[in-house]
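job 3f2a | input accepted
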Amino acid sequence: MNTQPSESRKQRSAQRAGEFPPPPEPLAVPVFDSHTHLDITIHEAGVPGGDPVETLITQAAKAGVDRLVQVGVDVASSRWGAELAARHPSVLATVALHPNEAPGLADLDEALREIEALAGEPRVRGLGETGLDTFRTGEEGRAAQEASFRAHIAIAKRYGKALVIHDRDAHQDVLRVLDEEGAPETVVLHCFSGDAEFAAECVRQGFYLSFAGTVTFASAGALREAAALTPPAQMLVETDAPFLTPVPYRGRPNASYLIPVTVRALAGVTGRDLDELCAAISANGERVFGSWG
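job 3f2a | predicted structure (293 res):
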């Protein structure tokens, strides 16, 4: 597949200069990374070793991150993730057209047909990341973005799989579309970015809130308030690697082995015992994505 980054992604990746951070203290109770992009990490950040995928997975396991969810953003990356999950026991996949990809497609319907074909694969366990993004996509792309989101919701319901939502500056519109279409049984708000009020509504609706390294940023007080009121039974943790590297390594490449930094921050924010929180998050992974075994 072609996983070479676009020019805009290349420009953004230049901001993640330098080497990968040192490994943190491993977790005593294993947890999983609910959202990572191994393919983008390899192409944008570079990974030393003969087999970069195996290197990333092995590093994660050494840190107590024993399972990964590889997330698709277009047809090519979705196909790559489905193929990886089919052969690797510690990886499951989700497939989708990213909301910022959808408006630029020459044939959105054909791309959605390819995503639906991949959705039937046994180790593809979610549709995502899909959703709405009013930060990078202008008004001219909104109609295609919303049409794509609605199509992903329908596919998730047809196949009984989780819906993994990218929501950037679009909280109320995301809730509106979910209400109009009828939300799937399992909904994940990837890289949750809302405040306590939005978190409370998502919790009320039974959604899972997945927190990334952003929860460690100095400016993220509202996000920490949202995390503090999220029940452990509805909480996930993710890297969104190679993006959103947690403090004190912000700006350097991210990878799944850094999950312990974020989950320790979540334990501090929520006042939960670290081992108990890891056990709860791990159990949530089985409820959302099913068994990796």
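job 3f2a | The chain is about 45% helix and 15% strand.
job 3f2a | closed
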